[in-house]
Design a protein that fits this description.
The complex is a heterodimer of chains A (197) and B (119).
Chain A: H1 2-6, E1 19-26, H2 33-40, E2 46-51, H3 52-57, E3 72-83, E4 86-92, H4 101-107, E5 110-118, H5 126-134, E6 139-144, H6 154-160, E7 169-172, H7 177-196
Parallel strand pairs in A: 1-4, 1-5, 5-6, 6-7
Antiparallel strand pairs in A: 2-3, 3-4
Chain B: H1 5-15, E1 33-36, H2 49-57, E2 62-63, H3 64-71, H4 75-87, E3 91-94, H5 106-117
Antiparallel strand pairs in B: 1-2, 1-3
Helix pairs in contact in B: 3-4
The chains are: A alpha/beta (197), B mainly alpha (119).
């Protein structure tokens, strides 16, 4: 097929396309996912919107539904260029629980995930923890402080989420670049440790 | 077709795809990188206005999600249009690095780790 022959072939004068990988930034609505993506991304987070009628209902043809009001589900993402050959994308998952069907697609091919937790209402991210546990997708839990403050030690958060001992819990401030970077590094260390085993 | 905001937002993009909401090929992910073929192959059909917009945006390699955001179109719409462009030989597509949970790529992980360390 013409398409598969065309895959990965470069064009004269244009830099070769880099390898791409992705990490998901998940968690409840309003926990700071886009803030984290934005603080560590080299670009201002970009947003894509998908009409829900298409994404959710598996509509094949839109004839006759012109009058239906379009609901969209938005997703923010950022980019970190690792090298000329490798680019990492960070995808903030849609926070609302009813849009979770999008997560399955998003999760395919991800290196792993960060589950971000709002220290004031950790229960809003329970479902995200559950999602990655069930699918055996490696993740770290990042506790986003309120105004950078952390009233609870990481171990208390681990207990309240009933996290297994092998899931790292990191205290962070999603507004700060170094802090968000350290969360991603914690995830990579987890992935590397699992790969070495 | 009305052009009001309520329906226009949904309907107008899919007018670009002739009403299709499913791509003909499944090999475009959010982080598949696409690049315009320059110069276009001999005998390739003349691109339509919206296709030209896409081709201009991928003169250098760009990920599908970025392309959709830059064009302010749903990813699903952009993917359908990219399928046409790929079949016409006007773009190339590079799939993302495969991630196999059962056989992790240590070299890849270390490269990402080192890159993050440099931030």
């Amino acid at each position: 097929m013409a398409g598969s022959d065309a895959l990965a072939t470069g064009t004269a004068g244009v830099p070769a396309a880099p390898d791409t990988v992705k990490i998901l930034i998940a968690g409840g609505f309003g926990v700071g996912k886009t803030t984290m993506v934005g603080s560590v991304s080299e670009i201002t987070p970009l947003r894509t919107e998908e009409p829900l009628t298409v994404a959710g209902l598996g509509v094949d043809d839109l004839a006759g539904i012109e009058e239906k009001r379009a609901t969209t589900v938005a997703m923010d993402f950022g980019r970190i260029t690792i090298s000329d050959e490798l680019v990492l994308y960070l995808f903030g998952t849609p926070g609302q629980q009813r849009f979770w069907f999008m997560w399955n697609d998003l999760a395919v091919g991800a290196l792993g995930a960060v589950v971000l937790i709002d220290v004031r209402r950790p229960e809003s991210s329970f479902a995200a923890v559950d999602f990655f546990e069930r699918r055996h997708i490696p993740f770290v839990v990042a506790v986003n402080g309120f105004d950078g403050r952390h009233p609870y030690p990481a171990e208390d958060i681990r207990e309240s989420l009933a996290l297994p001992p092998d899931v790292p819990v990191v205290l962070c401030d999603a507004r700060r670049r170094e802090s968000s970077r350290d969360v991603l590094i914690a995830l990579l260390d987890l992935l590397i440790a699992a790969a070495v085993d | 077709m009305t052009d009001s905001d309520a329906s226009g937002r949904l309907v107008r993009p899919f007018a670009l795809t002739g009403g299709r909401t499913r791509p003909s090929r499944a090999d475009f992910t959010l982080i598949t990188t696409v690049t315009a073929v320059d110069p276009p192959p001999e005998g390739a059909p003349r691109p339509q206005a919206e296709q030209t917009r896409i081709l201009r945006r991928c003169a250098r390699p760009v990920a599908v999600a970025e392309l959709a955001a830059l064009l302010d179109l749903p990813v699903s719409v952009v993917v359908i249009m990219l399928c046409d462009l790929l079949e016409e030989g006007l773009i190339t597509a590079r799939p993302p690095r495969p991630v196999l949970p059962r056989s992790p790529d240590l070299d890849l992980l270390q490269k990402v780790r080192e890159g993050l360390g440099r931030l």
